[in-house]
Structure formats: C-alpha cells, structure tokens
C-alpha cells in the first residue's frame, strides 16, 4: 500500500477559484486511489479528468455541480 497526502478543493464559481477544504482527511493509505475517491462521493461517480505529473502527484477534477479537485501526493 502507498500512503498519500490528499487535498480537496471545491470550486467557487462566483469568485472563479478553488477553495481548500480543511475538514477533509489529509492522509490515506491505498493501493487503489480511484476506489478511495469513489468512497468519498455520495452520488454516482461523475465524469472526471485525471492528470499525472512526473513527481508522482495525481490530480482528479470531478465534474460535479460544484466541481471538486482532489490532489494525491505520495508521502
């Protein structure tokens, strides 16, 4: 299992920026990031965009009514 630091940001369409969610769990241990991500979404899993960076960081942009961005950085 890998350990990740996780950040969730919620899009504020009025300001046009993402707001950091400080109430979200900050670390997770998993072999399946998408399974962990799906467990946090209370509705059918939405369409999403996934970006993988050279440093191992993975970002998911979920296309919900209020878009959410999840950033996973391996610890």
Ordered list of secondary-structure elements with their pairings:
Blueprint: E1 2-12, E2 17-20, E3 27-30, H1 33-40, E4 48-52, E5 58-62, E6 68-74
Q: Could you characterize the architecture of this molecule?
A:
By secondary structure, this protein is mainly beta. The chain has one domain (2-74). 11% of the residues lie in helices and 48% in strands. It has 1 helix and 6 strands. It has one helix at residues 33-40; strands at residues 2-12, 17-20, 27-30, 48-52, 58-62, 68-74. Strands 1, 2, 3, 4, 5 and 6 form a 6-stranded antiparallel β-sheet that branches. A hairpin with a 5-residue loop joins strand 5 (58-62) and strand 6. The radius of gyration is 12 Å and the shape is globular. The N and C termini lie close together (11 Å). 8% of the residues are buried.
Compact summary:
This protein is mainly β and 75 residues long. The chain has one helix at residues 33-40, and strands at residues 2-12, 17-20, 27-30, 48-52, 58-62, 68-74.
